[in-house]
Design brief:
There is one protein chain. The strands form 2 sheets. Strands 2-1-6-5-4-3 form a 6-stranded mixed sheet. Strands 8-7-12-11-10-9 form a 6-stranded mixed sheet. It is of the alpha+beta class. The chain has helices spanning 2-42, 45-51, 68-80, 155-175, 178-184, 201-206, and strands at 52-60, 65-67, 84-99, 102-115, 124-137, 140-150, 185-192, 198-200, 213-227, 231-243, 249-263, 266-276. It folds into 2 domains: 2-150, Nuclear Transport Factor 2, Chain: A (Roll); 155-276, Nuclear Transport Factor 2, Chain: A (Roll), CATH 3.10.450.
Amino acid sequence: MKKLLTITLITIFSTFAAFAQDGKAEQEILKFNAQYEQAIFNRDTAFFERVLADDYTFSTEVGKTENRAQVLEWLRKEKEKPTHKLISLKNEDAKAKVMGNTAVLTGTWIATTTPIADDKAEQHTDKGRYTVVLEKRSGNWMVVAEHISEQQHDRKLMEQQVLKMGQEYGRIIKTQDATGIERILADEYTYTNERGKVKNKAEDVAGYKTPAKFEIFDITDQKVRIIGNNAAVETGAVRFKGADKDGKPFDGSERYTTTWVWRDGRWQVAADHTSEIKQ
């Protein structure tokens, strides 16, 4: 009986010790999570060089994957020349599950950003879920895999943003704002007219060096279709009147289709197509 009681007590104490050990490890992981969040906010590449395992893999909800070298290279570039300004970053509902030398960390991330060097831009907030797998190697917790997903944005808000940017695009064209056109066009921008002629960004921007003069450039019948979180298609009509660089007058109307992409914390024009409205 005494032997049985001793074995039972040992089992109970061992179980409590295991729970206590797991609880301590979970607190370590949650503390690590807070450090990880701060490192992202500060773009602390040295931190990630220490904690990302050699076989680390990063993946997103669209199936894109990157290895350690690729992620570190992106972090270095982002630190040297940021594509957006990170206003705030926080996580909610963080939970850690430890199983021996393996841990799984889950939670919700919330990031608020603005474009670089654009004081007038509205702040943009993204939200999603993350899952991180860690292993204890040589006494240190190392990140071996990450997966993130992003919630669908408010479509009504996105539509309003693109409608507003469509009007801003019209203002840039009307005033022949070379700096504005350089900024609003994506690097891969292409323009196709009704005759099938195609221009790239460099060719389009070059036209603003010898600008036309517009008396009228009115956009009407704007409609926007949102595609996922990062793209939108705007259609509408434009009535324009003015004179070209040689002083030759023009007066006409067109239908247009503009493809927008959300990149670097702002909407950019990836492609345009126009067709003449016969009078």
